[in-house]
Amino acid sequence: MSGYLVSGLPIPVAASDGRDQPFWEGLANNRLLLQRCNSCRGWQWGPEYICHHCLGDDLGFEEVTAEGVIYSHERVWHPVHPALRAQDGPYIVVLVELPQAGNVRLVGNLLGDPRQKIPIGGRVRGVFEHHPDTQPAYSLLQWELMT
């Protein structure tokens, strides 16, 4: 297995309406792009057709540094999908808050020892994990603790 996505799990792709397409294209180019309102400058995630702050519809995507802090976490011990086996766990899922982007939060895997201590408020950086040999090709944003 390369990375966290085991064979049999669905490949992550943009939503059918394409609203999050810039996010996935950004990951493929080692960039974290999040939605931002061009009117009030508020950040939001996930992508919507209207701004969560001012209800405007002038939204775009802007690059954000892929660094944040752990807001919450879950250590997963049991398979949550038929493609996963008991030996695929444990793994750690983190909710990462991005202070530089209005404190929006993203969910992702925490790389490293699945039994490591996970500090709430610990600083993490994004790791872009590319899978060019799949059909379709895709990229993931994983997280690692900063030392």
Spell out the key features of this protein.
single chain; about 150 residues; mainly beta; OB fold (Dihydrolipoamide Acetyltransferase, E2P); 2 domains; five-stranded antiparallel β-sheet; three-stranded antiparallel β-sheet; 1 helix; globular
Order of helices and strands: HEEEEEEEE
Distance between the termini: 26 Å
Helix content: under 10%
The CATH level-2 architecture of the largest domain is identified as: Beta Barrel
CATH topology of the largest domain: OB fold (Dihydrolipoamide Acetyltransferase, E2P)
- Let me know the average pLDDT: 91
Described by its quaternary structure, the protein is: single chain
Radius of gyration using CA atoms only: 16 Å
Number of strands: 8
CATH class of the largest domain: Mainly Beta
- Give the uncertain stretches in residue-range form: none
What is the total domain count?
2
* % residues in beta strands: 35-45%
Tally of contiguous helical segments: 1
